[in-house]
Predict the 3D structure of the following.
Amino acid sequence: MNQFEELYAEFSMMLEKAATAADVAQVKADFVGKKGRVNDIMKGLKDMGPEERKTLGAASNSLKERIIAEIDRFLEDLERRQIDERLSRDWIDVTLSDAVLDKGLSSAGYHPLSLVQREVEDIFISMGFDILDGPHIEDDYHNFEALNIPANHPARDMQDTFWFADLHHLLRTHTSPIQVRGMEAHKPPFKFVGPGKVFRNEALDASHEACFHQIEGMMVGEDISVAHMIHFLKTLLSNIFKREIKVRLRPGYFPFVEPGFELDYECLLCGGKGCSVCKQVGWVEALGCGMVHPRVLEYGRIDPLVHNGFAFGLGLDRLTMMRYGIDDVRHLQDGDLRFVSQFKAY
Ligand code: DAH
């Protein structure tokens, strides 16, 4: 019987020395594994008388159980100690100032797209607009139908859509469905903007990404005119570029507005004389806009005989590139910290 107590004491000593889970596994194999010490004793049982075999057999079984239970407890303890150790090692002081972080440690910065999006949002908030959000995964109704783009309408081909297998859901191709959701949730008069990611199945190059960013805008009330629209859009661009910006409207076709326009602004680089940035035209395309189509108002349960409004959709990627002089959209997506860390201000 003493033999068992000695073996247990030896086991306890070995276990005490174990520092890692691998050490523990070794101790386990040495004592209660197939070729372990307890099994050695059990093998010796076959040479004994029946009585002795019975008591010693029971004793070695209970020793084995004790050892295994002890090992389990030890492992749990070890894990807890390791977690505690990690917790006391890996921590950051979130109150540390930039000044401290700048001494060698890197601090987080805002992505230029976020900076421009926030700037645009702030400008619209200052003009009394709300900010709305919408889902990236849209349905056919919100992305197309309620925007006066019925099935088989050729305008569906204007945008290469990522469809889900059910053919009813898609990755929104523009932020315009936020208009539909805005009308569902609000009674006129209202004005809001809705920024976010949009997705199109396009070939990628220096100016095309399959995932890019837009901000949608909509204002609905009584007697809203194109002059209101020009006012808000001109104010936006002048605030973004921090100078008085000249704009012009050209006719443009979008099924959800009538009349529809493309709004250009005078090239900031050449002041309208023509250069490589504006492709010698003197003007840069900024956005699509127009007076909300009566059918779209009806889809939004707004009576077009009482209310009207304007809407616009503005690409944020190109605006960000213009604002910061970035020459390739792909920089905006590739997550290179050397690029992102250049933009800290907000
Ligand atoms: N949704 C259009 C696009 O992605 C942009 C647009 C044009 C939005 C005219 C509008 C609008 O709200 O009135 O190409």
Q: What stands out?
A: The longest helix spans residues 50-89. The chain has twelve helices and nine strands. The chain has a mean pLDDT of 90.
